[in-house]
Amino acid sequence: MSTDKSKEEFLKEISDLNQKIQQLETDLSNIREKADISNRLKSMFLANISHEIRTPMNGIIGMYNVLKQTELTDEQREYLDIINLSGNNLLTIIDDILDLAKIESGQLELEHNNFSLENELNHVINLLKDKAKGKGIELFSKIQPEIPDLLIGDPIRLKQIIINLANNAIKYTKEGSVTIEIELLNIKNNSVELKFSIIDTGIGISPEDEEKLFKAFSQIDSSTTRKYGGTGLGLAISKHLSSLMNGNIGVDSVVGKGSTFWFTAHLEVDSTIDTPSEIKLIKEQKEQLSILLVEDNLLNQKFASATLRKEGYNIDIAKNGKIALEKYKNNYYDLILMDIQMPVMDGIEATKEIRAIEEKNNVNDRIKIIAITAYVMEKDRKMCLAAGMDEYLAKPFKPKELLDLIDFVM
Ligand code: ADP
Q1: pLDDT over 60 at 232, yes or no
Q2: Tell me, what's the pLDDT at 126?
Q3: Which whole-number Å values give the CA distances from 68 to 53, 163, 234, 297, 312, in the listed order?
Q4: DSSP H helices in 365-398
Q5: Which ligand 1 atom is the nearest neighbour of the CA of 235?
Q6: Which atom of ligand 1 is nearest to the CA of 237?
Q7: Which of 122, 377, 381, 387 has its Cα between 20 and 30 A from that of 175?
């Protein structure tokens, strides 16, 4: 009898213990959920205030560009260049943090645009060539000829990964070369799987250190950070971006010999245009453009118009949407650069009015409208596109970014 009782007790103890384990598991999962939620809230908060963080930078970098065009002594020019360099460095860090916040709060969506792979790679090479040359490093690029040139995907995010990896390659290489190589892994129906390799002859990474890569805020050691600078966010962002393109990312490296950072991406093949030469032809036929700049901020007006006039474009300025609408009705323009937030009539409303006028008059060749705004969230982009704008440029922008975008839409 007594053994039976102790067996009963024993069983009860087991069942109590089981219950306790279950309770602990539930508690743990609640805690994890709360931590996840608060992490997501933090990221959402950051992504949502991105406008507020970037706007003051707009003033700093914009003012640099205006000031640079005035008469200055060599000493002043030198100080100004330091302001510009620091401003751009800070903007890169801000953009990295905001990108990560957008990714973590699930707010980063990829675009679905047509692009030429060769053009985009040329952009990247153009952007990096001075930096490589400055360090005496050779920069090469290779595209496997079997790859279709016209693709559909998010060229900006694709370039962001390549630029990230190539910037690192240049940063961590003292002598030799950096090669950007694109290979075809797979082609099926209307899609390709591509492998992008960024090959350097730099310091290399040990196998233990390789494990730490691709995690946010992770740098191999603090002495590397002191020597080379950086936030340790680039690879984490690149990893997320490549996985959004249904790809992977990785590295093969030998200490002292160099590293090959690679990633893969799935992209659609654009079969609507037959030959790349068609695009080039349209670009070459581009003539002198008349541009209407709609912007209420005097500083931004000066910066943008100086940039555009230097390029030889004809510029007219309107300081709000209402004036822009009047000017549009009475003059011919090839392109409108439209600020969003303006008094009297904002850019969204002005664009809707212009599109309505075009529709009423059966205009086939709609005027190109580029939104220029400090709002950088995907929903803002969508709002601009939904209002009838063709493209979108986030402030603060560099002169080259504006000119490239104009080239792209025209
Ligand atoms: P950051 O370069 O801003 O520090 P990343 O996420 O881009 O951040 O890189 C993380 C770390 O990986 C770097 O701090 C560096 O130690 C290492 N690393 C990245 N690319 C290379 C490379 N090409 N060669 C050697 N080390 C690299």
Answers
A1: yes
A2: 86
A3: 24, 27, 30, 18, 19
A4: 378-387
A5: 6
A6: 6
A7: 122
Q: 3-class SS at 225?
A: helix
235 lines ligand 1 (CB under 6 A): yes
pLDDT over 90 at 375, yes or no:
no
- 139 forms beta bridges with 178
Structural domains of the chain sorted by starting position, each given as residue range(s) with its CATH number in brackets: 13-105 (1.10.287.130), 113-269 (3.30.565.10), 286-409 (3.40.50.2300)
- For 315, phi then psi, to 5°, come to -120, 135
Q: How far is the CA of 295 from the centre of ligand 1 (A)?
A: 40
pTM passes above 0.70: no
Instruction: Write the CB contacts of 293 (distance below 8 Å, at least 6 apart in sequence).
Output: 301, 304, 305, 308, 315, 316, 317, 318, 337
CA of 68 to the centre of ligand 1 (A): 33
**CB of 200 sitting under 6 A from ligand 1:** yes
Q: What is the largest CA-CA distance in the chain?
A: 106
CA of 262 to the centre of ligand 1 (A): 13
Q: Where is pLDDT greater, at 18 or 1?
A: 18
Query: How would you class 112 by CB atoms within 10 Å of its CB: exposed for 0-12, middle for 13-18, buried for 19 or more?
Result: exposed
> Chain-centre distance of CA 161, in angstroms?
9
Q: Does residue 198 line the site of ligand 1, with CB under 6 A?
A: no
Q: Residue of the nearest CA to atom 14 in ligand 1?
A: 219
Q: Among 266-270, 306-310, 369-373, where is mean pLDDT lowest?
A: 306-310
Phi, psi of 164, deg, nearest 5:
-55, -55
